[in-house]
Design brief:
The protein has a 4-stranded antiparallel β-sheet with strand order 3-2-1-4, with no helix packed on it. The chain has a domain at 50-114. The chain starts with a helix and ends with a strand. It has helices spanning 2-14, 70-86, 91-114, and strands at 17-48, 116-142, 145-151, 160-166. Helix content is 32%, strand content 43%.
């Protein structure tokens, strides 16, 4: 039984880690791809809806005037002129009114879909991959032996750092 306990004790000692301080003799950075973000100013074209007409009557009322919009007024005039050319006799009055109403509707529809655009400067966050230092391979001298350990922070040459030594 004593031999078994002694064997277990020797095995435990042979695989244990000892904390030591070792002198840094060389440092090499390890590069890898990392995701980085940065905020950059961006100029964008931002468009706003021109608004909706508040009437769907024969002559639409709304945004700028009694004709719904400037485009609606222009459409009414053009439609009236076309109706005047098409109609003849008693149909002339109906063609003028119908041309004016249709021209107004077309003009106001064009005005509603046009909208207002302006250039606006905003800030955006952009993500990209870049090569960067992800760790350091550090050569340390412990007694007469040289070991390589990996560290996240860069130690200075000549510094003493704590290392774990596994004895096997």
């Amino acid at each position: 039984m004593k031999k078994l306990a002694l064997a277990v004790g020797i095995l435990a000692i042979s695989t244990s880690a000892l904390a030591e301080t070792a002198r840094v003799i060389d440092v090499e950075p390890i590069f890898g791809n990392v995701v980085k973000t940065e905020t950059v100013p961006v100029i964008k074209s931002v468009c706003y809806d021109a608004g909706r007409r508040n009437s769907k009557g024969l002559i639409e009322k709304g945004i700028n005037s009694g004709f719904g919009s400037q485009e609606g007024l222009l459409g009414t005039v053009i439609g009236y002129g076309i109706g005047n050319e098409i109609g003849g006799g008693s149909g002339n009055e109906i063609a003028k009114v119908l041309g004016a109403v249709i021209g107004n509707k077309v003009g106001n529809t064009r005005a509603a879909t046009k909208g207002h655009c302006e250039m606006v400067e905003t800030v955006e966050t952009q993500r990209f991959y870049a090569k960067d230092i992800i760790a350091y391979n550090v050569d340390v001298q412990l007694g007469n032996e040289i070991y390589t350990v990996r560290r996240k922070q860069e130690p200075m040459l000549g510094d003493y750092i704590r290392v774990s030594v596994n004895v096997q």
